[in-house]
Amino acid sequence: MDDPPEGAGTPRDRAGQLASRRHEMQMQLQDVERELAALRRSREGAADDDEHDPDGVPLSEQWSRLEGLRLARLEALAGIDDATERRARGEDGVCRSCGNLIAPARLAVRPEVTTCIDCAP
């Protein structure tokens, strides 16, 4: 498996895809972490009841949403790192379930995927 899967582009293209996706996720993670920090600052010293705030979404709901986004970005980064390791081992673009090639279009959209479209959950 030293050669890239047919139609998947050159190894350099895949490396670029993975690096670009990683950078994108890191920027999104930083944005979410900034929002969480701002939310923390807004709650410092506050003792009011945010669950009954008539003016908007409860802060606990905002916190929960942002924490979910943060965890999703961290999972995406881990997936991208795994894909980079698979690429280094020459296992790039091969479905972990069936062993067939993953469609180049699928890899272009989500470079970290580990399954072909037929085996995707």
TrEMBL record:
Region of interest called Disordered, as start-end residue ranges on this chain: 1-25, 39-61
Domain of life according to the entry: Bacteria
Lineage of producing organism: Bacteria, Bacillati, Actinomycetota, Actinomycetes, Micrococcales
Swiss-Prot/TrEMBL keywords: Metal-binding, Zinc, Zinc-finger
Listed Basic and acidic residues bias regions: 11-25
Stored PANTHER family: RNA POLYMERASE-BINDING TRANSCRIPTION FACTOR DKSA-RELATED
Annotated protein name in UniProt: TraR/DksA family transcriptional regulator
Keyword match Heme: no
The keyword Secreted appears for this protein: no
Zinc fingers classed as dksA C4-type: ranges: 95-119
UniProt xrefs under SUPFAM superfamilies: Glucocorticoid receptor-like (DNA-binding domain)
Originating species: Brachybacterium tyrofermentans
InterPro entries per the UniProt record, alphabetical: Znf_DskA_TraR (IPR000962)
Domain Zinc finger DksA/TraR C4-type: 93-120
Pfam families, sorted: zf-dskA_traR
